[in-house]
Design brief:
Length: 90
Amino acid sequence: MTITIPLTELRPKLPQIMDRISKRFDRCVITRHGKPEAVLLSEEDYEGLLETIEILSDKEAVKRIKKAKAEIRKGKTVPLPSLRQHIEHV
């Protein structure tokens, strides 16, 4: 869930907002003069965004993801027990 709060109201509510961000993965948009200026999010959310950006900036990784999605749509999947067995033998 995204919370929007004016900067003037942020300071007294910061401990409660931090709890929501860390426990429920909420995000907080901070506004100044009615315009969004910053976002507070959990460190885990932030790291996930950085990882996503890194993956999407790798053209080869994006090609592999698209190929995998196409194979899934075509039903070219491997049952989980078979995959586990294959991994154990590698």
